[in-house]
Model the fold of this input.
Amino acid sequence: MRMRYMVALWLRLAALALCTFGSALLAYVAVCSAISPSRQMWIHWAYEPLSYAAMFLVPGIVMFRLASVLTRWLVPMPRLICPQCSHSLFRLAEPRCPECGCPVPESYVTRGERPRP
Done:
């Protein structure tokens, strides 16, 4: 669970860094356009910083919005179900499926503790 939390944290930090850099480029274009004497002159050189800003902002926003989905995909949690009959294996007393008798790993035995989601 801690690994999943750390991956989500790093994804959000990376998304924040991308958005910050893209916003700085947008601010640069806005300031330069405000102080530019002619409107037509800044349009020619503003295209490149605007495209760079979009290259950083769009992935940053998408990554920030999808951080939880990406985290679940990158760090899957183990599912405690029987591989043969798909019976739930929560709170096992012995390493055997109570429904079909299929042997399961010893790590599935919880000894009465309730697993955390």
User: Anything to note?
Assistant: The radius of gyration is 26 Å. The chain has a mean pLDDT of 81.
